[in-house]
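Got a spare moment? Tell me how you read both lines of this record:
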Amino acid sequence: MAWVDDGDGGLVGGGTEFPVLRRKADRRWCRFVECDAEGAAANGSSGESGISEAPPAVDGDVGATGVVFRPLVGNAIYWENFRSDGSGRGYDESWHAGLPVVEGVKVGLNIWSWGRIE
């Protein structure tokens, strides 16, 4: 998923949520994922979008689940939905949803790949 435009820059909401993806306890990720209000404010966001946000990624929170990637123009996220073992089984961590845009415009580009990256 690549984000290519946000209209006039006033986009609120519209992130991509992975509800069972484990988070890293590293505040540097707050530039790219929703964090608590303190982490979001430090990275230019009020954290008050009115949408569900991932719980804070802080020390001691390793292994907690739920990540919302921010729709930042020029950024992209990549994930694989299915295992490479031929079973047809998916990864639980790849369950995801596009969250609603609360205000503004979000233009994204879905890129579907058919081969595996080795």
User: Anything to note?
Assistant: Residues 2-99 form one domain.
